[in-house]
Amino acid sequence: MLLSSIRRYPLVAATVAVAAVAGVLSLTPWAAAVPWLVSGYALAIAAWTGVGMVRDLLRGHAGIDILAVTAVTAAVVVGEHWAALVVVLMLTGGEALEDYAANRARRDLSALLAKAPATAQVLVDGDLRVLPVDDVRPGDTVVVRPAEVVPVDGTLLSDAAELDESSLTGESLPVERRHGDDVPSGGVNGQQAITIRATRSAHDSQYQQIVSLVEQATTSRSRTVRLADRFAVPFTLVALAIAGLAWWVSGDPVRFAEVLVVATPCPLLIAAPVAFMGGMSRAAREGVIVKSSETLEKLDRARTVAFDKTGTLTYGRPTLARVEATGGLGADELLRLAASAEQYSGHVLAAPVVTGARERGLRPTSGDDVHEVPAHGVRAHVEGRDVVVGKRSYIATETGRDVPAAPLQPGELAVHVAVDGAPAGVLVLRDEIRAEAADTVRALRAHGVEHVMMLTGDQAATARHIAARLDIDDVRAECLPLDKVHAVQDAAARPVVMVGDGVNDAPVLASADVGIAMGARGATAASESADAVILRDDVSTVATAVTISKDTLRVALQSIWVGIGLSLALMLVAALGHLPALAGAWMQELVDLVAILWALRASRGALAPRGPSAGRRGMRAEAPELVGAGGA
To answer: Is 471 tagged catalytic?
Structure first.
């Protein structure tokens, strides 16, 4: 442990070694060499720091280390070599102190990483073998012992299982699974060993995708130096002015050094990054992975929020309400052919068509020559027939015929079907508005969001119906992915936050100032292109993320001001000659500690519990309303 620390922080070890050698020498006949040893080492570190400071200046960052370098130099010149060494300890120990504080701040993120399984128990030819989790392949039979984490996504082979999936959903109650149910990775098994058949490799499984997001968040380097840069130059100028004035009034150059040793800049260099890491950790505890501290800064200033509809403002689980055949086919035959084509589509509306057919005892048959146009529809050759399923405009284009609008109730959505080049009927679907959606919109407005949009591929009537229920006044319906991108790019009130779910949302999430993906149902291209990923199936977490961002920025600024305020007070005391250089240097270390402890407050919060049942616990419960399912 000691050797690893020395290897990781060699300059800290060197500073402590110099102090120890100097302390021993001071008790020997060679005590006269102590000032030369300490001063020489301090000036060498100051020179090394000065080189780095110049490089930062050339890259456009304020070189706030100029205060520390000047303080060390001044202390050596006036003979305060021990004070200079204490300042050097602050300089060399800054990285170690920041690492310690950051590790404390990111402990909720680290907890997710610590739970990631490294191995899995796989049945191979009847023998149970322990394999690296990355070696598990789809189709393998995996045994999960009591209290172990499910290593990969799979299908339950055992009769029943009880899993703690709180790390995925935030719901504290155990979840019961039955034979044949999907079992997501990351859940903790109950009291009985279970067997699952892997459906995905570890890399593609849900929990590993979450782990990858967490690793990205914990290793990202903060760009929040801008926050400190706002104060760096003024603070430096004020400190130099106080030190220069104290020297001029007293006529004693020692006063100059005494003032500067209490003006060292650790609160500006460390406090803000620690606060942001704490905010990211708190966000993870509330069910959202924020990939960088820059995202928190933008969320704090968000003025426009745009929502996708299906899977975001609605549950994204539409059901088949009815089938209306308008051609020569019967309703069952129309549905069976449509399901046979839709089974090859990954669109959110394809699954309810296939499920609806099976619930009616209809079995989709295989097809060929399948061609899908994202956000439009799918074409397939089924039983010698050309079947096209999708939007009304897509059916009209594919058939070259006018397709009449389907009569719909408020909130319903029509999926049109054509067979052999002629419109053949309509499948009517419904979805439910999320219970927490309306309160989420209200909470965002209370946080200073000026403009709320809904961007959807759905028909205008359905989109307006949902928007009216949620108090959203800017509705963009029948949008293609590129239309959503243009809507976000053209928004006047910025920064713009886009919240979406699904592969079709990846372009708009990437183009927004902050893209937030509803990733509770597994990793998608949307999660990869987003700046933050919600792990719970709960859109209210968007408002929670904004709350955390505002709390984090406030704590970061407070920690900076606390550090600056205490430093200014100590500078004034030193300017009056009441604070010796060595005592002042140690007092500045205390200031650094106070500022960092204040910054760690960002990892704490008193938010109401969140989760899939937020409508019961954290928001006013409302009865879900049936609404039309939307396109991507």
So the answer is: no
